[in-house]
Amino acid sequence: MNDTRTPTEVAAALIWDNDRFMICQRPVTKSCALLWEFVGGKAEKGETLEQTLIRECREELGITVAVGDVFCEVTHEYPDITVHLTLFHATIAEGTPQLLEHADLKWITPSEIPQYDFCPADRDILAKILRECG
């Protein structure tokens, strides 16, 4: 890896509802516009990744999540940023998801993954979900 940038720490949630998991569509105003992703975001200074995830879910969906174990971690280099993404198992502890930032939200089964265009950083994660949960 020739990239000397320090990766930006990102926390995201794998939230299941029976055999379906939540995906969110990025807003048209942000990078990777209208691509699908897991809810989450960048860690702020002094935050743990668990705290980041709780804050981001509150800001983006108006829900409180209970953060569980790490499902997986990936590092991805975009042209302008390198991200180290930690995907946590999470459950909705309080609230109903609302579209406060995203363009759309869906609950999909692993077999439906190929029907959606995801952010590049999520592709290895999706392959793992297909292998382990599909």
Q: What's the N-to-C terminus distance?
A: 31 Å
Task: Please tell me what the overall shape is.
Answer: globular
Low-confidence stretches: none
Helix coverage percent? 10-25%
The whole-number mean of residue pLDDT values reads 94
CATH topology: Nucleoside Triphosphate Pyrophosphohydrolase
Number of strands: 7
Coarse structural class: alpha+beta
Overall tally of structural domains = 1
* CA radius of gyration: 14 Å
* Binned strand content: 35-45%
Please report the first level of CATH classification, the CATH class.
Alpha Beta
- Give the SSE order as H and E letters: EEEEHEEEH
Write the CATH homologous superfamily: Nucleoside Triphosphate Pyrophosphohydrolase
* Annotation field: number of helices: 2
Report the CATH architecture. Answer: Alpha-Beta Complex
What is the makeup of the main sheet?
7 strands, mixed
